[in-house]
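Dock magnesium ion; give full complex structure.
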Amino acid sequence: MSVRFSVIVPVYNEEAVLEVCYARLTEVMANMNEDYELIFVDDGSRDQTPVMVSRLCDNDSHVKLISFSRNFGHQTAITAGMEASRGQAVIVIDADLQDPPEVIISMIEKWREGYDVVYGRRVSRRGETLFKKATAKLYYRLLKSLTNVDIPVDTGDFRLIDRRVCDVMNSLTEQNRYVRGLVSWVGFRQTEVTYHREERFAGETKYPLKKMIRFAMDGITTFSYKPLKLATYVGSFVSFGSFIYLLVVLYLKLFTDKTVSGWASTLSVSLIFNGLVLLMLGIIGEYIGRIYDETKKRPLYIIRETKGFNHEEK
Ligand code: UDP
Ligand code: MG
């Protein structure tokens, strides 16, 4: 028997929200009156999260657990969930209830109308710092201007995708997963539903600044090589300027008796250029590091334990 809906919930140290998350999702999904599975992907939690999910598995056959051997990251957890999912429509949602589960109902409606991808676009965000809101707003617009793929602004990974889209996503082998970008990249008929992003129900964000920066860089590097071209543009501009300046220097040397003066100008030119060169090296390094990751072809994640998956079904 085929499952109609798969709900994928990546969880990392989410013991504070798990019960309520399960209850809210179950309420929504049970009301659809069709078979569904709730796949919790435990991303190497160090708290009681996997134990709690495992207990849910014992009491509810809809619940399934995939437990990673360590923390592999949010995007990888989503990927593992997609690979294990069997539903004709697959829904990805955060555990912290910032994305209200009830929005899934309107996503499913759109899917029934024939859309293959229904993403949630947040029209407001509550309970997040001004810094996060401002950087997120700026970032999504920067990403859009840098890439040729039409990644909608202000959307996260809260979305519904059709089985066909999920199968295509599963066939992609890239290591640096930027799921929301990949979903846009694969195409198909896409639409949005809008919603208000709530405060985190409990616990704190699992995205400290360091992870956020890494995630943001992944988005840009996997979908654009414009930053690399920056070297070409800045380089040509600077060379042109330098050439003009060289003419001035030669003129002063040959036709006037002005002596070269000032360490300030020499020093500032040297500082600017060294800065630029290091910046460019850094950008190139970001790409090379990721190319290195791809060539190693390590598995994306390692599973420590699964539970609730019925083997005949597979
Ligand atoms: N998450 C994860 N692995 C990580 C970080 C986060 O699986 O390394 C999960 C987390 O449990 C949550 C979702 O990803 O379900 C989004 O994380 P969070 O709500 O902390 O991010 P924010 O909303 O603050 O950006
Ligand atoms: Mg959150």
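Observed: The beta strands are 5-11, 36-42, 63-68, 89-92, 117-125, 155-162, 190-197, 303-307.
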